[in-house]
């Protein structure tokens, strides 16, 4: 799936909805699994830190379907004022979430624009478990 196709799929799930001062569904994400299946989700902005990002919603749908390996992922946001579509890189929490769902996801391609991508490893520096400072004691 091309970056443009993945971006379009993520944009297709954008349906902003206000509840009080909160906005749901204004960021959409779509991912493609290693098996070639697509999953999408939207963000939920709730109080007290109980909400979650669009990437987490898409990953939840993927895990519900018993898949864990993400080949490619993108998140998008459309500005209300002029309708401009933006690709959003995953926040730090989502980067770590992607990695923890399956260790192989460190090689996931993260779409950063129409012609721009990076691996999760490039976006998540120092992701290896650290070496011990002192030799183990027996």
Walkthrough of the structure:
Helices cover 25% and strands 32% of the residues. The termini are far apart. With 138 residues, it is of the alpha+beta class. The protein is globular.
Helical percent range?
25-40%
CATH topology: Cytidine Deaminase, domain 2
Number of domains: 1
What is the second-level CATH architecture?
Answer: 3-Layer(aba) Sandwich
Return residue spans where pLDDT drops below 50 for at least 5 consecutive residues.
Answer: none
Name the shape in a single word.
Answer: globular
Largest sheet: 7 strands, mixed
Short structural summary:
The protein is an alpha+beta fold. The chain has four helices and seven strands; from the N terminus they run αβββαββαββα. β2 and β3 form a beta hairpin.
What are the key terms here?
138 residues, alpha+beta, Cytidine Deaminase, domain 2, 4 helices, 25% helix, globular
Q: What is this structure's SSE topology?
A:
Blueprint: H1 3-12, E1 17-19, E2 22-33, E3 38-44, H2 54-64, E4 70-78, E5 85-88, H3 92-101, E6 109-113, E7 116-119, H4 120-123
Parallel strand pairs: 4-6
Antiparallel strand pairs: 1-2, 2-3, 2-4, 4-5, 6-7
Helix pairs in contact: 2-3
